[in-house]
Amino acid sequence: MESYVDKNNQIQYVISTRVRFARNIADYPFASRMDQTSAREIIEKVQGVLPDYQYIDFQTLDPVRARSYVEKHFVSPNFLTVRMPHGLLVKDDLYIMLCEEDHMRVQCIVPGLDFDRAFAGASAVCDALEDKLPIAYHERLGYLTHCPTNLGTGMRASVMMFLPALTYSGAIRKISQQLSKMGLTLRGIYGEGSEESGCLYQVSNQITLGISEEDTLNKLKEIVDTIIENEKRAQKALEAQNHDKLHDITSRALGTMKYAITMSSEEFMSLYGKVRFGINIGCLQDVRYETLDQLSVAVQPATISLDSTVQDAALRDKVRAEKVRKALCGDKASNDNTMPNSHIEKNDRKE
After folding, report:
1. Among 103, 62, 64, which residue's Cα sits nearest to residue 84?
2. What is the CA radius of gyration of the chain?
3. pLDDT tens series, the chain, 351 aa
4. Which residues of 257-296 are buried (b: 16+ CB within 10 A; e: fewer)?
5. Residue 199 and residue 255: Cα distance in Å, rounded?
6. Whose CA is closest to 163, among 54, 250, 251, 280?
7. Three-state DSSP string of the chain
8. Report field, pTM of the whole predicted structure over 0.85
9. Could you tell me which of 194, 193, 202, 200 has the C-alpha nearest to residue 292?
C-alpha cells in the first residue's frame, strides 16, 4: 500500500477531501414526504444500478454501530434520525446515503488534499445513476433537491483541515467571517451544527446555484491554499513568541498520550491537536500523522465500544488510554488510512 504521507497533498493541514452530490429520482416525493414503500423502492432501484456495492441497512442497525459511522464521517448525524427505510452503499472510497434528506447523497472521501480524485469518483457514480434512472432536473434550476440551498449542481465539496495555529491565536474567527462573505463556510468536525474538536474544521462551499462544478472546485482550491498560508504564518508567529513553551506543551501532550491510564474522548482530541501541532513545528519526530489520524476515529465513543464491547464510560476511558498507549509506544500502527472499508464491520454488510 502507498505511503500515507507520500500519496497525500498537504497532509500537515488537510486530513481529507470530500465531494458530495445530492440527487433525487423523478416522480418520487422528497424524503420528508415519502412513505415506506417509496423509500424501499428507491433503495432497490439504486441497488439495481450499483449491484457491486455493499449495503448497510440503517433501519435495523444497532444504534451504537450506527453512531460509529458518524464518527468515521461516512454518514451525517442527521442520518441517524431518519425513520423511513434508509441505508448506506459502500465501495472503496465511495459512500452513498440513501433516503436521508435527498434520495441519494453520493460521496467520495479521499485522504489529504485531492479535489480532482474526489470529484472524479463521485461524478462517475452520478453518471452511472443518471444513465439508468430518471434524475430530477430542471432546465433553469438544475438538479432538484430537498433543500433549496443545494439546487443547481447539488454539489458540496469540502476539506477537513487541521488549523492549530489559527485556533490558538484566535484568528480562526476572522477566517470564518471572511469565508462566509465569499459563499463558503467553516464548520466543526462533524459538519453543520457541530463544534471544533482537535483543531479540526470542515471548509466547504455554500453556493450551488449559478456556478459550475469546475468553478466551485477552483475557488475552493484557491481558498484552501490561502488558509494554509495563513496557518503557516500564524505558526511562525507563535514559534517566534515562545518556541520552548510550544515544545513543552506538545511534548507533555505526547507524554500524557503515551502513559495515561484513563482518557476521555474530549481529552484525547485536545491532546491530538497539540501532538499533531508538535509534528508540524518539528518538535515531535517519533510519531506519525497517520497514527494520530487513525486514532482520532478508532477511539471515539461508539467505535471504541464496538471494538471492545465495553459500554461503561469509565471502562471505555481505560480502554481508550490503552489503545493510545499501544499505538504510540513504538508507533507500530499500520499504514492503512481511516477512509477505506476496513472500517465497515463485516456484520453490517448486506449483499
Report:
1. 103
2. 21
3. 233 444 446 899 999 999 999 999 999 999 889 999 999 999 999 999 999 999 999 999 999 999 999 999 999 999 999 999 999 999 999 999 999 999 999 999 999 999 999 999 999 999 999 999 999 999 999 999 999 999 999 999 999 999 999 999 999 999 999 999 998 999 988 776 667 789 999 999 999 989 999 999 999 999 999 999 999 999 999 999 989 999 999 999 999 999 999 999 999 999 999 999 999 999 998 899 999 999 999 999 999 998 777 778 889 999 999 999 999 985 443 334 344 454 555 556 554
4. bbebeebbbebbbbbbbbbbbbbbbebbeebbbbbbbbbb
5. 19
6. 280
7. CCCCCCCCCCCCCEEEEEEEEEECECCCCCHHHCCHHHHHHHHHHHHHHCCCCEEEECCCCCHHHHHHHHHCCCCCHHHHHCCCCCEEEEECCEEEEECCCCCEEEEEEEECCCHHHHHHHHHHHHHHHHHHCCECEECCCEECCCCHHHCECCEEEEEEEECHHHHHHCCHHHHHHHHHHCCEEEEECCECCCCCECCEEEEEECCCCCCCHHHHHHHHHHHHHHHHHHHHHHHHHHHHHHHHHHHHHHHHHHHHHHHCCCCCHHHHHHHHHHHHHHHHCCCCCCCCHHHHHHHHHHCCHHHHHHHHCCCCHHHHHHHHHHHHHHHHCCCCCCCCCCCCHHHCCHHHCEC
8. yes
9. 200
- For 187, the grid coordinates are 464548520
- Would you tell me how many other CB atoms lie within 10 Å of the CB of residue 37? 10
What is the number of other CB atoms lying within 10 angstroms of the CB of residue 92?
A: 12
290: amino acid identity, one letter: E
273 in Cβ contact with 189 (< 8 Å): no
Residue of 198, 106, 193 whose CA lies nearest to 157:
106
Give the integer Cα–Cα distance in Å for 52 and 54.
Answer: 7
